[in-house]
Structures are given as structure tokens and as C-alpha cells.
């Protein structure tokens, strides 16, 4: 299936970025992990000079929080590039009903995973790990995690989700409280960050330090 941008983003498509089309995926009916693992294997071979020619102009950093850049979105898939300065991180969050894959394009990221037992119960850490450049992690509909750049260098990561993200869940570690974060109409909104950051300021935000 050809995947092209229909709303937001920068009018790229999967074929332009990776050299292959993304398959149809139903996270409920299908076995999403097997499909995502197959895509991950293809990504490790596909991210090269031509992909970076499309991705590099979309790199955006902001000193106040990590940046989310929508590359494309259609009825089946959404692709985002997240750009991280040292010390930046997400809130603890899930991905609603979507399944996804994260590929580290440059730098390194740290992932922490949690188990949620409901409101009023603290989240329980269930694992963590470092993702170097070229590293992959997979997110199912029940994945609750936090991503952070704990290094001293910038990082960037590619994120693919099916179906496209609508509403994410953000969590309070101590209380287990969960609240919705609408990301369908605001691809730049940060999970746990400041939704009022001006995207137009992202390119020059570090010049006035």
C-alpha cells in the first residue's frame, strides 16, 4: 500500500523514505508484533543516504522540550521524527489503540517501561534499556513507557504508528493517574511537555542562549 501524507507533515511517503511501502496492519485482528518486527528488519537496511536526504531538512530542536515532526499520515500509518536535546524526555505514556515501532536515527535514547494497575496505584517499573543509533523498540497497545535522551549529544528517532495516533495516555508515576493527550490535530504537541511552544521558534531557539 502506498502511504502518502494527507494532513500536516511535509508531504513525504514511505517509498521516498525507506524504499518500501508499509503493509496494512490491524493491531486488534493481526499479530502486530510480527508485522512490526518485519518492518524493523527492513528499516535497518533502508535508512541510508537517500532516506537522510529527506529526513535531515526536518530536524528541529527546541531548548524547552523535544520536538515532534509529522512526516506523513494517512488512514493506515503515521510517521513522526522526534528530535531530542540532552536531558529531554517524554512523560510516561501509552499510544492509545495504536501499535508502533521506534528506530533511533542518530544519537542514543533510554527507554523505561512500566505496568499500570489502574488509578490510585503507583506505576511499577517493568524494564529499561538503552537504544543506540540503529536501535529498535516496539510498542503495542498496552505498552506504557518513557523515552529520554540521557546523553550529552542531540538525538533523533523515527516513529511509525498504525493506526495513526489520535489520543495518547499520559501517566503520573506516583498515583497512577492517567489523562488523555490529543495529538491527531497537533503533531507538534509534546507528551508531558509544553503544548504552547511555538514551532516556528524551533530553528532559532538555541541561538539566543
Could you explain how this protein is built, in words?
The chain is an alpha+beta fold. Helix content is 13%, strand content 32%. It has helices at residues 14-18, 32-46, 49-55; strands spanning 67-73, 78-84, 92-93, 99-106, 109-115, 124-131, 136-139, 144-148, 155-162, 167-171, 178-182. Strands 1-2-9-4-7 form a five-stranded antiparallel sheet, covered by helices on one side. Strand 5 (109-115) and strand 6 form a beta hairpin. The radius of gyration is 16 Å and the shape is globular. Residues 1-11 and 193-209 have low confidence and may be disordered.
Question: Distance between the terminal alpha carbons, to the nearest Å?
Answer: 45 Å
Count of extended strands: 11
The main sheet orders its strands as: 1-2-9-4-7
Mean pLDDT score: 81
Helix content: 10-25%
Flag low-confidence runs. Answer: 1-11, 193-209
The computed structural class is: alpha+beta
Name the helix and strand elements from N-terminus to C-terminus, one letter apiece. HHHEEEEEEEEEEE
Number of separate helices: 3
Instruction: Assess the beta-strand content as a share of residues.
Output: 25-35%
How many strands, which pairing sense, and closed or not: the largest β-sheet? 5 strands, antiparallel
Radius of gyration, in angstroms, nearest whole number? 16 Å
- Overall outline: globular
Oligomer: single chain
